[in-house]
C-alpha cells in the first residue's frame, strides 16, 4: 500500500495551563474531522497540565520559560526558532497567558490565531466570564480571531453565542463557554487551512 502523504497542515500550539482546547484540537484531528497535525506544543510554564496531556498522546512538547529571557522579544525569538524548526504553518494560542511582542506578531503575520471566552470586542483581557456576568449581558460566548499587536484584538474568524443564566457563576458560565470553544476552535483551524480566509481591514472574509 502506498504511504499516506503526510499532512503539511502543521500547527504549533502555545499554552500556559490546562490545555483543554489543545486536547479538543487533537481529538478533532484523531477523529478525522480536521486534516492537520500538531507538530509542536510549547508552554512557558513547565507545570502546565496540557504538556503532560500532549506528551501522553505522542505530541512533541517544549518548555520555554519566559523567566529565562530578559525581554519579551528575546523570549519570543526562542519561540519563533522552535516553531520554524518544526515547520508550522499556523500558530494557535490556547490559554497562552503571555502577551506576544510586536516582533513575533509581525514575523507570523496572519498566521497566529487565538481563542477568547467572550464575544469580542466585549470583555477582552482576563476574567472575561466574570466581566460578562457583572455587565449583565444575556449572551456571551467565545471568539476565534487572528492575533494583532493588541490584547484579544484582531480580525474575527468565528464566534459562538452562549446564554448567561440567572444563577450563573463565573465558573458555571466558563464551563458552558468552554464546550463551545472546543467546537469552534477546530472549525476555525479547518477554515484557515482551506485557504478561503482573507483579511480585509478589520474583517475576515470567507468564514461564513
Ligand atoms: C480558555 O477559556 C480560552 O478561551 C482562554 O484560556 C482558556 C484556556 O483553557 N484563552 P484551556 O487551557 O484550553 O483549557
Characterise this structure.
It is a single chain. The protein has two domains: 102 residues, 3-Layer(aba) Sandwich (Rossmann fold); 95 residues, Formyl transferase, N-terminal domain (Rossmann fold), CATH 3.40.50. Helix content is 35%, strand content 23%. It contains six helices and nine strands. The N and C termini lie far apart (38 Å). Bound molecules: 5-O-phosphono-beta-D-ribofuranosylamine (GRF). The site of 5-O-phosphono-beta-D-ribofuranosylamine has 14 residues, from helix 1, strand 5 and helix 6.
Short description:
By secondary structure, the chain is of the alpha/beta class. The chain contains six helices and nine strands; from the N terminus they run E-H-E-H-E-H-E-H-E-H-E-E-H-E-E.
Amino acid at each position: 500500500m502506498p504511504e499516506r502523504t503526510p499532512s503539511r497542515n502543521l500547527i504549533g500550539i502555545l499554552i500556559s495551563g490546562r490545555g483543554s482546547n489543545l486536547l479538543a484540537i487533537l481529538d478533532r484531528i484523531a477523529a478525522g474531522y480536521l486534516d492537520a497535525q500538531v507538530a509542536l506544543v510549547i508552554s512557558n510554564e513547565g507545570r502546565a497540565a496540557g504538556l503532560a496531556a500532549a506528551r501522553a498522546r505522542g505530541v512533541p512538547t517544549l518548555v520555554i520559560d519566559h523567566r529565562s529571557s530578559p525581554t519579551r522579544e528575546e523570549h519570543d525569538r526562542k519561540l519563533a526558532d522552535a516553531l520554524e524548526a518544526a515547520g508550522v504553518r499556523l500558530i494557535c494560542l490556547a490559554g497562552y497567558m503571555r502577551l506576544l511582542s510586536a516582533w513575533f506578531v509581525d514575523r507570523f503575520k496572519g498566521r497566529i490565531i487565538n481563542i477568547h471566552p467572550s464575544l469580542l470586542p466585549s470583555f477582552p483581557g482576563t476574567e472575561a466570564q466574570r466581566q460578562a456576568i457583572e455587565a449583565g449581558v444575556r449572551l456571551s460566548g467565545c471568539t476565534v480571531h487572528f492575533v494583532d499587536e493588541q490584547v484579544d484584538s484582531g480580525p474575527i474568524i468565528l464566534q459562538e453565542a452562549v446564554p448567561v443564566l440567572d444563577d450563573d457563576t463565573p465558573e458555571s458560565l466558563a464551563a458552558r463557554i468552554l464546550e463551545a470553544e472546543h467546537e469552534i476552535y477546530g472549525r476555525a483551524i479547518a477554515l484557515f487551512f482551506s485557504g478561503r480566509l482573507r483579511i480585509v481591514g478589520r474583517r475576515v472574509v470567507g468564514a461564513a
